[in-house]
Amino acid sequence: MTKQLAYLLAGLMAWGAALQVLAFDLEGHRGTRGLAPENTLAAFSRALAIGVTTLETDLAVTADGVLVISHDPLLNPDVVRAPDGRWLPDKGPAIHMLTLAQLKRYDIGRVDPASKYGRQFPEQQPADGERFPTLAELLALVRASGKPVRLNLETKITPLHPEQTVDATTFARLVVQAVQAAGMANRVTIQSFDWRTLVEAKKIAPEIETACLTIETPTDDTVRRGDRQGSAWHAGFALAAYDGVLPALVRAAGCAIWSPFWRNVTGDAISQAHGLGVKVLPWTVNDPRDMTQLIDWNTDGIITDYPDRLRRVLADRGMPLPP
Q1: CA 20 to 30 Å from 86, out of 8, 44, 197, 300?
Q2: What percentage of the chain reaches a pLDDT higher than 70?
Q3: pLDDT for 206-221, tens place per residue?
Q4: Rounded CA gap, 305 and 17, in Å?
Q5: Which residues lie below 8 Å from residue 277, measured CB to CB, with a gap of 6+?
Q6: Has this prediction a pTM greater than 0.85?
Q7: What's the gap between Cα 223 and its chain centre?
Q8: pLDDT greater than 90 at residue 6
């Protein structure tokens, strides 16, 4: 074998490995919620250091129209401390009622260890002094990393409480404008349980990928299979019109990705989605045994609080890892 041929083969192998990495999406949930305070620059930096293909996060809009990172439309006492350092006594106010300057006064650098929520993440390392980041700050962090990481941006909006956020059209427009202005439209997915923002985003920027989120549990159900008029979460699309086939509903809404709660996923559902040209990206999977099962079922990726655990599962299976 000549040296030139050897170089060519090595290059082809490296390219093939890169394609396989892209084929499986290792997403850090809220950065890496299991290891660092959720949705903070500390969490995103930790996830980038671990090595993920995508940073998953959540968006809200302030009173002065700034996109910020927050899972909850209202300030959450489990993760938010007031300027005096004390945990908030109750939920609220809504981020939509606060200016960016007012929001930046709150500390989100640790979970309340006395809360039920806080006890779920014993490995999380606090980072006192972390503030609610803006989307612009997150995009700058990703660009500065030099890594080809994608972003999965969730619009936190609900049809049940319209007073908590801007309207769906405004929300979608702000996100699309921010992503396009940053030159990152090809590196972003917009996801939501409230598909109105996804439909609106597709109208404005059809080139931006969207992901339809769903959950079906006794206490939290956005699918509402028994409602023949369709779920309020699904932007006027009715599951009954698609013979109860959820991936078909997802495709009709313009989503390239179906992102269900992981306990709702089956191998048959994944095969069904793939047959319709829809990728499947379950959330939020933290047990390596469950990760392994989903990979066996040929899921297209996994959203996890512990990207380090998922990397170990991928490595044990001989699958390529993101840098």
Answers
A1: 44
A2: 93
A3: 999 999 999 999 999 9
A4: 25
A5: 251
A6: yes
A7: 19
A8: no
d(CA 168, CA 20): 35
Q: How confident is the model at residue 23 (pLDDT cuts 50, 70, 90)?
A: confident
**Domain segments of the chain as ranges:** 19-316
Q: Residue 312 carries which side chain, given as an amino acid letter?
A: R
pLDDT of 321: 95
Beta carbons of 215 and 261 less than 8 angstroms apart: yes
CA atoms within 13 A on the CB side of 320: 16
E strand map for the chain: 25-29, 54-61, 67-69, 150-155, 188-192, 209-214, 257-260, 279-280, 301-304
Residue 13 has pLDDT above 90, yes or no: no
Q: From the CA atom positions of the chain, what is the Rg in Å? A: 20
Residue 309 is predicted with a pLDDT of 98
Q: Are 231 and 224 in contact (CB under 8 A)?
A: yes
Q: Which of 206, 292, 211, 283 is nearest to 247 (CA)?
A: 211
Query: What are the residues facing 94 on neighbouring strands?
Result: 74
Tokens representing 24 are 């499986």
Cα 6 from Cα 38, distance rounded (Å):
46
